């Protein structure tokens, strides 16, 4: 089972995750796209990674925006290395 | 441009929309599925209807749940017949 990361550990990881914030025990970032189709494509694309990592973000879509929030259910809703790993995957998807 | 519906008109429509609630100026329903894949399939399926109706819900996904919220941006964020129409479409998708 993944252990919760300390605030220091999270802050260190955030250096490599531009635009991501740590708030309310979650890692969060809002992504903006040109339109709904692009937002939906991003959601679909990341859904495969979530399944592969057996770890699932909260996904909030409003038209061309997608807010992603990450925490680990099995670790009391705290941020673990599983969230860091998924955040990095999502970043690389978004930058490709 | 779609006109906001009155509370009475909304209440009347809600009779045909089981599980839907009117709160914070929006029509809302939470759908539950067996797993993430089924939730994502539902989101993908309804995304085509949203594009066709040129009307887009707020979509909040947490693993196997999908919360849909509907209001009309062009009508000051109030509920209009466009929201009723999309809610009915979403219901029919979910029941098929």
From TrEMBL, chains A, B:
Annotated keywords: Lyase
Gene3D superfamilies per UniProt: Transcriptional coactivator/pterin dehydratase
BP-aspect Gene Ontology terms: tetrahydrobiopterin biosynthetic process
Pfam family, one: Pterin_4a
Reaction(s) the record says it catalyses: (4aS,6R)-4a-hydroxy-L-erythro-5,6,7,8-tetrahydrobiopterin = (6R)-L-erythro-6,7-dihydrobiopterin + H2O
Source domain of life: Bacteria
InterPro entries the record matches: PCD_sf (IPR036428), Pterin_deHydtase (IPR001533)
EC number: 4.2.1.96
Tagged with keyword Lyase: yes
Gene Ontology molecular functions: 4-alpha-hydroxytetrahydrobiopterin dehydratase activity
Keyword Cytoplasm among UniProt keywords: no
Membership in a protein family: Belongs to the pterin-4-alpha-carbinolamine dehydratase family.
The protein's name in its UniProt record: Putative pterin-4-alpha-carbinolamine dehydratase
Organism: Fodinibius sediminis
């Amino acid at each position: 089972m993944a252990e919760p990361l300390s605030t220091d550990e999270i802050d260190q990881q955030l250096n490599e995750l531009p635009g991501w914030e740590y708030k309310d025990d979650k890692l969060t970032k809002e992504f903006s796209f040109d339109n709904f189709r692009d937002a939906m494509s991003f959601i679909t694309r990341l859904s495969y990674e979530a399944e592969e990592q057996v770890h699932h973000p909260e996904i909030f879509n409003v038209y061309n925006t997608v807010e992603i929030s990450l925490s680990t259910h099995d670790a009391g809703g705290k941020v673990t290395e599983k969230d860091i790993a998924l955040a990095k995957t999502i970043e690389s998807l978004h930058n490709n």
